[in-house]
Design goal:
By secondary structure, the chain is mostly helical. It folds into 2 domains: about 45 residues; about 35 residues. The protein contains 6 helices and no strands. The chain is elongated and about 65 Å long.
Length: about 110
C-alpha cells in the first residue's frame, strides 16, 4: 500500500501559493521538503504555471457525472434490498428517471 503522504491529490490553492512564494526565497528542493511534496511535483507545477501564466487546472475531459456519491449509495441500498425488481423499474420509481439503465448498471 502507498504511503498516505505520497498519494496523488490535486494541489490546493493554498499549496500552490506556498510553492510560488517559497520558491522566490528558497530552492525548489527545500520547498518540497518543507511542504512534504515531491520535488518533481514542484518543478512540474512551476513550469506549467510559467507556460500557462495561470495556476488554474485545466478542466477534466468527459461529461460530468449524473449521479452524486449520495445517489450511488442510495441506489446500491435500494438494489440490494429489492433484488427481485428490475433495474429499469427501480429507475422509474425513484428520482433517477433522467438516468439511463446502462448508467445505473455502472
Amino acid at each position: 500500500m502507498m504511503d498516505p503522504a505520497l498519494e496523488r491529490h490535486e494541489l490546493t490553492e493554498f499549496e500552490k501559493g506556498e510553492i510560488i512564494e517559497g520558491c522566490k526565497f528558497f530552492k525548489q528542493a527545500e520547498v518540497a521538503r518543507d511542504l512534504e511534496i515531491s520535488p518533481q511535483t514542484i518543478a512540474t507545477f512551476l513550469s506549467r504555471t510559467k507556460k500557462r501564466k495561470s495556476t488554474n487546472n485545466l478542466p477534466r475531459p468527459g461529461a460530468p457525472r449524473k449521479l452524486t456519491n449520495a445517489d450511488v449509495r442510495y441506489l446500491v441500498r435500494t438494489v440490494e434490498s429489492e433484488t427481485h425488481v428490475p433495474l429499469a423499474e427501480i429507475a422509474i420509481n425513484t428520482t433517477f428517471s433522467n438516468v439511463s439503465a446502462p448508467t445505473l448498471r455502472r
